[in-house]
Specification:
It is built from three helices and no strands. It is an all-alpha fold and 75 residues long. It is globular, with a radius of gyration of 14 Å. The model has no long low-confidence stretch (mean pLDDT 87).
């Protein structure tokens, strides 16, 4: 119960279940975009909060913090 309450509080205060401020989350995704382009030569975008989007991707929190989990987020 305590864990669930903490997650809900983060969602209401910060806007996501991770407790990451929007700019920090955007910066993380931008860094991943740069890493992918450096490694593959392909420019990719990981959109965040795009109005009118038809798909919602909800990733595990570990995808943003640690390897090898981030590799799953990268694709």
């Amino acid at each position: 119960q305590k864990y669930c309450n903490e997650i809900i509080t983060k969602l209401l205060k910060v806007g996501n279940n991770l407790g990451l401020p929007g700019p920090a989350l955007a910066d993380t995704l931008e860094g991943l975009e740069e890493d992918v382009e450096d490694d593959t030569g392909v420019a990719v975008k990981y959109p965040l909060d795009v109005k009118g989007a038809e798909i919602l991707l909800v990733t595990p929190s570990a995808d943003f913090f640690a390897e090898p989990h981030v590799d799953g987020l990268i694709g």
